[in-house]
């Protein structure tokens, strides 16, 4: 009887995890760029102060320190009319992922480190994951290559992908969807998958 109860508890937890994990909206990248640069994620039962502290711990764990945080401020935006004076808070940080953007053909196929700026805006029971900037770093170049988020440089005008850049849209989607999923899992205390 105990084993049935234990198995039932495990299955219910697994179902709840699956439902919560599937409710996160996904970024997609087409010839028109990102479908959105921000995704709102509901976090039932968590106040914004807890979300902020756990997000800072996630940033420290993911990037090794908190030096990547550019600013942490009150937005000044009131969350709703009933709670006058209660302000949202946000964290803006620069992140990086090694070998995240790959393109080219045959011997010219190369992978580059992605550098991005993310803004996290917090309120009770939710956070908003906002992509502010994406670049890739070419070794030897003094200036990073900026990737337009509102229009793709990897597509022809007719919407077809440019040869050699077929994987880039999926790489951009995976980069930001995996970051948001990692943050969500950390804030929810779900087991982290090895992703970096």
Low-pLDDT regions? 9-22, 78-85, 191-196
Helix percent reads 25-40%
- Hey, roughly how much beta strand do the residues contain? 25-35%
- Under CATH at level 1, the class stands as Alpha Beta
In total, how many beta strands?
8
Q: Judging by the overall fold, what is the CATH architecture?
A: 2-Layer Sandwich
Q: What structural category do the secondary elements indicate?
A: alpha+beta
Q: How many angstroms separate the termini?
A: 41 Å
The radius of gyration is 19 Å
The secondary-structure element order is HEEEHEEEEEH
Oligomer: single chain
Provide a descriptive summary of the structure in words.
It is a single chain. By secondary structure, the protein is an alpha+beta fold. It has one domain (2-187): 2-Layer Sandwich (Alpha-D-Glucose-1,6-Bisphosphate, Chain A, domain 4), CATH 3.30.530. Helix content is 29%, strand content 33%. The protein contains three helices and eight strands; from the N terminus they run αβββαβββββα. It has helices spanning 2-22, 48-63, 168-187, and strands spanning 29-30, 33-34, 38-42, 69-78, 87-103, 110-123, 126-137, 145-146. The strands form two sheets. Strands 3, 4, 5, 6, 7 and 8 form a six-stranded antiparallel beta sheet that branches. A two-stranded antiparallel ribbon has the order 1-2. Strand 1 (29-30) and strand 2 (33-34) form a beta hairpin. The radius of gyration is 19 Å and the shape is globular. Residues 9-22, 78-85 and 191-196 have low confidence and may be disordered.
